[in-house]
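job 3f2a | input accepted
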Amino acid sequence: MNAAAMPVSDDGATERLIRRYANRKLYDTVERRFTSLRQIERLIRDGENIRVEDHETGADMTAHFLGRVLSNRDSTDLPLAELIRMPNRIARIVVEDRHEQQDELRDLRAQIDELTRVVSALISDADTTRPAKPAADRDQKDHVSPKPPPDARKGSDAQNVDQ
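job 3f2a | predicted structure (163 res):
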């Protein structure tokens, strides 16, 4: 590919340059041959970014040729008017979908809040219905018997150590 024939658009993407000559012929500067509207349509369908320029003035004619590509479509494809309306329909679908998601999130939050209340109530009920431990049981856990001092070992062991 000819790097000089691939200008860069405002958004940084490379564009395939097609020149329109006074005799209305279209020249693909990458393939270095004359091309047709049908071939330009094929490039666009394949994901190529194109720019159509008037050879004499350098004027951008891309929008004009894109319109011609759309108007030359087969009757089985979407009509041009439908393609023009498409962005508004897509935006409406996105907004409606977002509203549905927000409604679902609100419902989930309400369910979580309700579950939190139920669990808290169960925990507090469990604390109030649990029988209190008798004072003797609490004292036994709190009270640890002290170890005997080392001098108080049994007689024979203490005597052997002292000797």
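job 3f2a | The CA atoms of residues 25 and 34 lie 7 Å apart.
job 3f2a | closed
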